[in-house]
Amino acid sequence: MAPHAEDPKPDSGVDLIHHDGKTVYGDWRDQFHKTGTAVIKGVISPERAEYYKQKQIEWLQSFNRGFDPNDESTWTQEHLPVSFKGGMYFAYSSTHEKFVWEARTEPKILEVFSKLWGTDELLCSFDGMNITLPRQKDLTWSPWPHCDQSPQRKGMQCVQGLLNYQPNGPNDGGLILMHGSSKLFDEFFREQREQDDHEDKPPEEEDFRDLFIFKEEDVKWFEDRGCKLEKLNLEPGDFVLWDSRTMHYACFPQGDRIRHVQYICMTPRKFAKQEDVDLKASLFNNWQGTTHWPHCNIRKQGPVERDGKPDPQNRTEPYEKPIVTDRILQLAGVKAY
Ligand SMILES: [Fe+2]
Questions:
Q1: Which end of the chain, C or N, has fewer beta carbons within 10 A?
Q2: Residues 6+ away with beta carbon under 8 Å from 138
Q3: Is residue 26 pLDDT above 90, yes or no?
Q4: pLDDT beyond 90 at 208
Q5: Where is this region: Disordered (predicted)?
């Protein structure tokens, strides 16, 4: 790879990974640069995936609300900690659980992001996990095709990842990606676009800058230009990467299998402003989560609420604290490279 004369600047409209459209790597990066999406098979073993799956179940059970993975009658909100979109867990310091940091620091996960960005000096998001129960009775769920980059941010500014722990067949939950949509992001937003008035649209005052929910007609707009919506059927241990401009959402599980995934994103430390690194470090020191974005868009979240009131089961530290290594401190922005 030819060294850059100068590093690209975040939010200057330039892609943060330069690709000339010709370079061939002979690995998943070729697919990624072509469509903005890539599936990387077997980054962890099926045994490791099974371990993480069990840890997620144990974590749900640690709230002692009677959740039993083998008894479907307990698959209701009453028996579970509070989640977003029926299974995304960001609260309760869950983003710093020991098993979550173990997943982030799996050697091949670190290798994927190092290869992608061409540097080991990375920051990691304090991102959530997704545990979705099929047929959960007290859940209203609707598809929400969206992207996690604001229309105001141009160019490739972030790459998201998902580590899969459970086999997904056609009836199971899984990630749906609009392949190639990231390449049309600028063209799409050249016109004035309104977000869909979706039930999950966050209130204006929360200022979710890096979220745009698409309307049905927008899905068609991308399809008319050759993009393809695909639900991924993955094996345990597979990892998916997508440019944050990519339209995506989850398929709700209809079969018998619980969906188990961990979101993991890393971007180079050099793209972060010092104030954002400092904020990130303070969130780490207080066991708080972030958005998918590792180097910016870092916001403190309020305590979790159940039925409109602060959840008495809120946690200010993980159930099982991670073994904090220097590598973790670097990824968290606490320790300098
Ligand atoms: Fe998303």
A1: N
A2: 76, 77, 78
A3: yes
A4: no
A5: 298-319
Ligand 1: distance of its center to the CA of 147 in Å? 6
The Å distance, Cα 200 to ligand 1 centre, comes to 12
> Distance between CA atoms of 247 and 143, rounded to whole angstroms?
12
For the stretch 47-68, pLDDT in tens is 999 999 999 999 999 999 999 9
Q: What average pLDDT does this structure show over 155-174?
A: 96
Tokens, residue 183:
């390449």
Residues 268-275, mean pLDDT to the nearest whole number: 97
Task: Quote the ligand 1 centre to 148 CA distance (angstroms).
Answer: 5
Distance CA 248, CA 230 (A): 9
What is the rounded CA–CA span in Å between residue 237 and residue 232? 14
Model pTM above 0.85: yes
Whole-number Å distance, alpha carbon 248 to ligand 1 midpoint, is 6
CA of 107 from ligand 1 middle (Å) equals 25
Structure tokens that stand for 68 in this block: 């039993």
Rounded distance, CA 274 to CA 287, Å?
A: 20
Ligand 1 geometric centre to CA of 6 (Å): 31
| Average pLDDT score over the chain | 93
318 CA distance to ligand 1 middle (Å): 24
Give the integer Cα–Cα distance in Å for 160 and 32: 12
Q: Locate tokens 């869909």: which residue?
A: 196
CA of 299 from ligand 1 middle (Å) equals 16
Å from CA of 42 to ligand 1 middle:
22
